[in-house]
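User: Sequence in, structure out. Go.
Assistant: Echoing your sequence, followed by the structure tokens.
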Amino acid sequence: MVRINKRSPPHSPAICCQQVATQSVDAAAQHQQVYSWKRPKDLARVLAPSHAPPIVILPGFGNCSSDYIAPYGLKEEGIAHFLQQRGFAVYVVDIERRDWIQVARCIASRAYWTGKSTVDPGYRWYLHRVQATIDKACKECDSDQVDLIGHSAGGWLARAFVGDALYMKSSPKVGSGSAAQLHVAPGLGVGHLPSRAHEGVRRLITLGTPHLGPSTGGRDMTGGTLTWLNTQWPGAFFKDQGIQYTCVAGQLVAGNKEAANRTLAKYACNSYREVCGDGHGQLGDGVVPRCCAHLEGADNLLLDGVFHSISKKGTFAGRSQLVWYGSDDVIDAWLHALL
């Protein structure tokens, strides 16, 4: 089932989703309920219009480009391939799995352990590569803009990129230059960024992104970076400047702390706890709870039976047998947001 909420909830997305979940959450946890994906009969295949800008995919934490281009060596199983089959030009930010060790620059800092981290220095390398990919996509497609698809952490990193002063120039086609050559305007630190969106971004879709941390205290798993992001640019912050936000969450399994080890419910409980503070009874995609995957002011979608990634739980070494956001059968449930 596909559920869509295009209105801003009266409370924060975390509170709103928790209220919905509590109606059946205890029963779901008790019975280790797992939802199944069933493609709606009236869900049409989405085809790219002639004027569609190129798509840039932002990999999630720990992922690499090949997870989206040719997972496990199978190009025909990649989300990039499925999007290309629908007529879209697709680019994936060039990331190797070993590149994520650079986040250690953040983890080794005092700011991380005091909950005051920003994208510097742990994620700056990632944002530079996003700009480089946008430059390439716009040049090769003769386009002024791109659409961003951020998977998992790639979604909140996309939000950080859109508002970052370091990339505030004219659109890529006009000549922003390499990201490494750009500089923040005098007097502007990362904590005082201008409220202007990147001109080269048209729309942003996030897939299973942990946008929000614990709602009532608890540890921010990013060492404060996510908290900083949601203070600087909360919700669909640049919506009034023309950027359309679509946040896709999965509803696959309820976390259950009493479930047997190595079960999906137990794994989900532990993973949800890292994101929102308490994983028991939370519903989500097996990694990210749905209560943290939506943004105020965005077009928020909830997909039943969809797993977080193409990989098995807890590893990148094997392929999951569950459908995920980038499966060919699922893509059309959210791809209409780019039309």
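User: And one key feature?
Assistant: Residues 146 and 258 are 45 Å apart (CA to CA).
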